[in-house]
Amino acid sequence: MMRRSVLLSALALGLGMLAVPTAELRAESAERRVERFDVKTEKRTFGAARAIVLAPETVVRSVVTDYDKYPSFITRFRAAKIVGRVGDKTDVYLQVPIMKGTVKIWAVVRFDPPKTVGNQQVITGKMLKGNVKHLDAVWRIRKLDTERTELTLELAIVPGFPMPDSVVMPELRQAAARAVTGTRDEAERRATSS
Asked: Quick one: 24 and 71 in the same domain?
């Protein structure tokens, strides 16, 4: 009887030990998830994405503002180039294919410097000119702790031709998710290499 008790206890302990890595894996995969959602304002609906970055807030901010390097870590961008500065604002030429590459959006976007709003850093970009009627981008960077940061991108684009929201919004959510994923991966790479 005692031997059976010892075996059952050992089995229970072994199963408990197996459960720990599974729970850790679930927690880790939840941190790798990129959430897609919409943000509605009075004027527009933004397609957005959010993820946890395993890097300090300062590293994440440096990647978000490294505009010239966007094509190297955000796969959807075909071109990104700083074309001017006005005071502390940065003008960036961006080119992004949408609709499986059949349409190319280009715009010169003026990015404001990071501003503290509540508990986050916000970097806003507004289109100066381009081949769409309107383009807004809002990056949100929120420190979770010394080694983790929440990163969100909100995108609003009004095409220069009629296109239903049922086509535009999934594209915006997908573009935001790819930008957040690429930025997250680059920030984590930079954090571990420094």
From this structure: no
CA atoms of 105 and 148, how far apart (whole Å):
33
Q: Quote the mean pLDDT of the chain.
A: 85
* Same-domain check for residues 81 and 92: yes
Q: pTM higher than 0.85, yes or no? A: no
| pLDDT at position 13 | 36
14 shares a domain with 78: no
What value does the mean pLDDT take over residues 128-133? 95
Q: In this structure, what CATH number is given to the domain that contains residue 93?
A: 3.30.530.20
Domain span including residue 39: 33-193
